[in-house]
């Protein structure tokens, strides 16, 4: 039997929090549910306190200064406070399904350090649905396109595989050995207010041996509502470009000291450089782009080439 620590960062989630926590508690595999309350302005703290009193599995923490530090710092604090041999995550407005840990039997193989599955989407408000569908494909599952493990996962997430693997799987459907993330000193980048999950997953896929689990049906549900941060960002807006730059720059700084395959290193560098260029304009932008093109013309073949011409 696995002993799992479920880490839930909590910020202004009073409307959804109890359902989220109660979805994790019934599993025998779940040793503890760690709530990290991040100075909410609603009644989230009170609900956290109530859940911790009523359920011995629930453990409540706040940052030492009791201030707001963001989801990355909250997940990192949860990792530090966890006592389970395995770590999972759950957003406070999402919930697990009864099959959440069905794939985790593959941990019988000591080589496997992490397993990931698919999650479903539940539209909680019409406005949230409209914003989500205007920015993302209207798919009932967030998943990858085919089963994979090991290096194929890392390369797939960077779109470097012959077949399209899919560029994302969700933290809600990831289970990882705590010993693995400690061994490789993996934590969420607290500079990133968004995309810290993608940043963590790509780094995890490089260092750890991951394997796909249940990828054709949901093991958790993601709630889409009016206040989802990721849907508020207009694509190719200055805010979008800056956040993409911070994400790719985080991967670039991490990758510089690693023996990555040349195509992976080049991909990360070019994505970083592409969004760096969006912060420039006019003659300065043209000169910088020309300099990059002379060194590596593949910059004009990146997925985000649109941004070179739209500041």
TrEMBL record:
* MF term (GO), any: hexosyltransferase activity
Any signal peptide, and if so, which residues?
Answer: none
Q: Which Gene3D superfamilies has this protein been placed in?
A: Spore Coat Polysaccharide Biosynthesis Protein SpsA, Chain A
Q: What does the UniProt keyword field contain?
A: Glycosyltransferase, Transferase
Q: Does the keyword Transferase apply?
A: yes
Q: Which residues form the Glycosyltransferase 2-like domain?
A: 5-100
Stored InterPro entries: Glyco_trans_2-like, Nucleotide-diphossugar_trans
Which named protein is this?
Glycosyl transferase family 2
Q: Which organism is it from?
A: Chryseobacterium ureilyticum
């Amino acid at each position: 039997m696995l002993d799992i620590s479920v880490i839930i960062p909590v910020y202004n989630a009073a409307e959804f929090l109890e359902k989220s926590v109660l979805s994790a508690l019934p599993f025998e595999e779940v040793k503890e549910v760690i709530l990290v309350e991040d100075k909410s302005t609603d009644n989230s703290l009170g609900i956290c306190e109530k859940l911790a009193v009523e359920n011995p599995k629930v453990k409540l923490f706040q940052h030492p200064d009791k201030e707001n530090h963001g989801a990355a710092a909250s997940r990192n604090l949860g990792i530090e406070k966890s006592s389970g041999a395995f770590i999972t995550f759950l957003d406070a407005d999402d919930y697990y399904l009864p099959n959440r840990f069905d794939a985790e039997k593959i941990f019988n193989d000591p080589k496997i350090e992490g397993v990931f599955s698919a999650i479903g989407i539940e539209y909680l408000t019409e406005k949230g649905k409209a914003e989500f569908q205007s920015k993302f494909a209207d798919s009932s599952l967030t998943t990858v396109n085919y089963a994979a493990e090991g290096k194929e996962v890392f390369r797939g997430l960077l779109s470097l595989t012959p077949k399209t693997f899919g560029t994302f799987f969700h933290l809600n459907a990831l289970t990882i050995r705590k010993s693995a993330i400690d061994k490789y000193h993996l934590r969420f980048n607290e500079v990133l207010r968004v995309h810290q999950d993608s940043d963590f997953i790509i780094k995890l896929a490089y260092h750890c041996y991951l394997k796909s689990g249940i990828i054709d049906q949901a093991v958790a549900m993601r709630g889409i509502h009016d206040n989802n941060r990721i849907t508020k960002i207009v694509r190719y807006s200055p805010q979008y470009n800056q956040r993409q730059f911070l994400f790719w720059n985080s991967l670039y700084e991490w990758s510089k000291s690693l023996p990555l395959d040349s195509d992976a290193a080049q991909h990360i560098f070019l994505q970083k450089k592409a969004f760096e260029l969006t912060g420039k304009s006019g003659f300065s932008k043209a000169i910088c782009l020309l300099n990059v093109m002379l060194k590596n013309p593949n910059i004009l073949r990146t997925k985000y080439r649109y941004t070179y011409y739209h500041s």
